[in-house]
Amino acid sequence: MTNRIAYTKPSITDREVAYATDAAANGWGERCYDYLKKFETAFAAHLGTGHAIATSSCTGALHMGLAALGIGPGDEVILADTNWIASVAPVRHLGATPVFVDIDPVSWCLDPDKVEAAITERTKAILAVHLYGNLCDVGRLQQIAAERGLYLIEDAAEAIGSQYQGRRAGSIGTFGTFSFHGTKTLTTGEGGMFVTSDTGLFEKVLTLSNHGRSRSQPKQFWPDELGFKYKMSNIQAAIGLAQVERIDDLIARKREIFSKYREKLETYQGLQLNPEPPGTVNGAWMPTVVFDRDLGVTRDMLLEEFKKTSIDARVFFYPLSSLPMFTPEKQNAVAWDVPERAVNLPSYHDMSDADIDRVADVVRSFLR
To answer: What is the tens place of the pLDDT at every residue in 17-68?
Structure first.
């Protein structure tokens, strides 16, 4: 029987097991944050940011970061209509208004022209989500944000390993956030990270992350404001530390798998793969194929064919504005069109060349 190819799973070695075991056995009392501190320090060093705060999720990191910037009722946050719900949920939780704009047809990320056109006197931030490892046009978005006095926030949940002009995704904006869900290149099972080089913002989020208790407050169990509880556990951080110590290899393997897909598929007409423009590095978290509309290949056709061959594939994100809690924004034509003819491909670290070829063969079958 043909083995099933999963679309993703983590790379766990003896190092992760050893660190987690040590945290479970000894990481209590005075050592209850040992791995947490080491993980935060190592991750900040990898990114080149001044500060990092490990969190229970990327969503939590976004929530606290937006709250620390004072974003709330009456404010607007611009983001792409093509995203996972986790990117917009904190905006709504804080009472702010998300403004969905269309995506660039090549990067599948925020279209800067659409961003500029959507800015109003109520706009406070641009939320740039680096989709599937693809990079937003960070340079253009930085310019827009600077000219209009806006915060540029990077949701780099899917972009570990991606770089723009030599700077790592997540390290460029006012703050950045990452996800360490079990599907990600670097995992802690569940978890995330808030990063920034703004010391004042860091201190504000650090206070919010501990129920509003400032580390400069001499009173024990005295919160100075109402905060959050999005802390990562020491055991999760132990796994994260082991992963970040292997991060170069983890990224390299993701890029190698994507390179093999590109090698097998790029000669075929009518197919678009994740881009990697000059001056950028794509971390290749999730290799994705988009078929030209005139080929008549649909998402459902692709999923059915993968299912027949015992391969797990993943749908391209539906437009956020198509979800029941939002109002349809069908003028975002690219965001509404691309998911109908696209699919994410398996890319876990331990895939064999034969596995990659099996996946590529399904894609090729629609192009022959």
So the answer is: 999 999 999 999 999 999 999 999 999 999 999 999 999 999 999 999 999 9
- What letter represents residue 249's amino acid? D
Measured CA distances, 174 to 192, 278, 303 (Å): 17, 24, 38
Contact 157, 58 (CB under 8 A): yes
**Model pTM greater than 0.90?**
yes
* Spatial CA neighbour of 351 closest among 216, 253, 246: 253
Phi, psi (deg, nearest 5) at residue 181: -55, 160
pLDDT, tens digit, 9 for 90 and up, residues 92-147: 999 999 999 999 999 999 999 999 999 999 999 999 999 999 999 999 999 999 99
Q: How far apart are CA 172 and CA 280, in angstroms?
A: 13
Exposure letters 282-304 (e unless 16+ CB within 10 A, then b): bbbbbbbbbbeeeeebbbeebbe
CA atoms of 276 and 285, how far apart (whole Å): 13
Question: Torsions phi, psi of 167, nearest 5?
Answer: -105, 140
CB 338 within 8 A of CB 291: no
DSSP three-state, residue 142: helix
d(CA 173, CA 127): 9
Q: Which two tokens stand for residue 213?
A: 């208790």
SS3 state of residue 208: helix
Half-sphere exposure of 119 (CA within 13 A, CB side): 19
